[in-house]
What we know:
It comes from Polyrhizophydium stewartii. It is an enzyme of class 3 (hydrolase). Keywords: Hydrolase, Manganese, Metal-binding. InterPro entries: Calcineurin-like_PHP, Metallo-depent_PP-like, PPA2-like, Ser/Thr-sp_prot-phosphatase. Belongs to the PPP phosphatase family. It contains 13 helices and 14 strands. It is of the alpha/beta class and 362 residues long. It has a single domain, classed as Purple Acid Phosphatase, chain A, domain 2, CATH 3.60.21.10. The strands form 3 sheets. Strands 1-5-6-10-12-11 form a 6-stranded mixed β-sheet. A 5-stranded mixed β-sheet has the order 4-3-2-13-14, with helices on one face. Strand 5 (151-154) and strand 6 (158-161) form a beta hairpin. The radius of gyration is 19 Å and the shape is globular. Mean pLDDT is 86; it is low at 300-309 and 323-362. Manganese (II) ion binds at residues 52, 80, 111-113, 162, 241.
Amino acid sequence: MAWDxxxxxxxxxxxxxxxxxxxRELCNKAKELLLSEDNVRHVQxxxxxxxxxxxxxxxxxxxxxxxxxxxxxxxxFLGDYVDRGYYSVETITLLLCLKVRYPDRVTLVRxxxxxxxxxxVYGFYNECCEKYKGGLVWSYFTDVFDYxxxxxxxxxxxxxxxxxxxxxxxxxxxxxxxxxxxxxxxDGPMADLVWSDPQQVDGDEISGFTLSPRGAGxxxxxxxxxxxxxxxxxxxxxxxxxxxxxGYQILFDDMLSTVWSAPNYCYRxxxxxxxxxxxxxLERYFNVFAACPxxxxxxxxxxxxxxxxxxVQELLMEEDERKSKDFQKSYDSxxxxxxxxxxxxxxxxxxxxxxxxxxxxx
Length: 362
Ligand SMILES: [Mn+2]
């Protein structure tokens, strides 16, 4: 079959699964392309920044309807494309097709879910196995994840990352020299970029870094953020990674903002989502949207409404789950899968199998 990317994009937009061989070819092309991108990618405004989408395919289609289609709009996606939602496979397929077709108009940053260990717990691995019979397609996608960039700088002024800052990273140059072509490590600067969170406590400012209750990354406050911006000559940090009921959140006297792009998260939280549209003069506008109307999604299972509190509880339980035996099991099989990867695809994944679970997340 001739390689017709536009036809593949149309298929992907209709939520059709592409053949396994096509996925392999798509992933190889994506890796080839991403290999030439630096850890820190520079793009010029105007640009639209998208936060977590987590496999909510129909909401991704809605994002393109609201924000403009490729290549008319220049997009930076901040990671967490997979897990949780029902259509991680279709979502990452579409985004990779668009990346390969319009490499200069689509930038894909790595999130903490673009990771073998995490995708085995939160849905993507199982979804790949169900939709493609066997884990090969999952290994193709997760190999591409190792190539995704870590940060974007918009017009030399706005730093975009998935999670947050790191006590090991003071300058942009230190992000540039990270060896990123590997699984996300358990700790260190690369892990912090995808796992950390800002925190604002009224009247009681957090100073420096404290370990994150997520079990990876850090929590950081206004002082750390101001310091990083000053040292590097930036005006703002834009990141994703945290659910915002209003679709976005602005912190630290407008030095940092969170953009969240999965409306009605997990089909039941009832939250809004947003796109951050950055204009030619670097003006920032959060384009807020709700979940895509039901008549425009074909077969999402109908989830019942649950309270935000209940979801938080569920998420906290999942934090514990990471430390549980189940996770240990998936982590072990993950190591085996990496070995399989090397064998089956000829791609060497730089992963230290000697790490134990507790070293990985705690
Ligand atoms: Mn995240």
